[in-house]
Amino acid sequence: MRDKFNHGKVSYGGQHGKGSSFKDLSGLKNLLGDMNKQYVENYYNELKKGYFTPNGVLKKDFIILYPDIIADNLSSGRMTYTQIRNFYDYVLIAANTYRYAKDAGDDSDETKEKLLLKIKRLDGMITYALARDNPSVTEEFRRFILANVEVCNTIEDVVNGFLPHFEAIVGYFKYRNPKSK
């Protein structure tokens, strides 16, 4: 009976053979970390191709798969829900300002340029937030913002690509960090 109990160590039949303990799982943590890094890199490579399918529909991975991966990546740092939400709200307000102007009959090139300029301003905003003495954002979040800003070249990219994608990341981040303020 004592052999089966194994002195409080839980055994599994993993690659190290029968009788390996959880103390041997540090390699598994490293493997999972490497896999997560690869998923993040896959995200950035896919983002460079744009948000939309050839039919002009938002790729579902930007709503389901990638937001979960990015939220998980951001959860490992000092990011807070409030800080992520502040940047999301900035994008939301910019998009809504454009929508209101369009609904009022102003769909001019100038109105479109103003929205795109507001999105491009995120570059300086996130860089400033990171450069502060006690930064409230992480380098990973800056990378996320800058990569998405780079892809936002049209109104469609912002309103029907970046905005719903960012919204999904906010949701997944809150789910993963329910006590984050």
Give the strand order, joined by hyphens, for the main sheet: 1-2
Q: How does the major sheet shape up? A: 2 strands, antiparallel
> How are helices and strands ordered from N to C?
HEEHHHHHHH
How large is the count of helical segments? 8
- Please provide the count of β strands: 2
Q: Helix- and strand-based class?
A: mainly alpha
Low-confidence stretches: 1-17
Mean pLDDT: 86
- What percentage of amino acids are in beta strands? under 5%
Specify the helix fraction band.
55-70%
Shape: globular
| C-alpha Rg (nearest Å) | 21 Å
Number of domain modules = 1
Q: Could you give the distance between the termini?
A: 49 Å
Tell me what you see in this structure.
The protein is mainly alpha-helical and 181 residues long. The chain has one domain (48-176). The protein has eight helices and two strands; from the N terminus they run H-E-E-H-H-H-H-H-H-H. The chain has helices at residues 2-5, 26-47, 65-75, 81-103, 109-120, 122-131, 139-151, 155-176, and strands at residues 11-12, 20-21. A two-stranded antiparallel sheet has the order 1-2. The radius of gyration is 21 Å and the shape is globular.
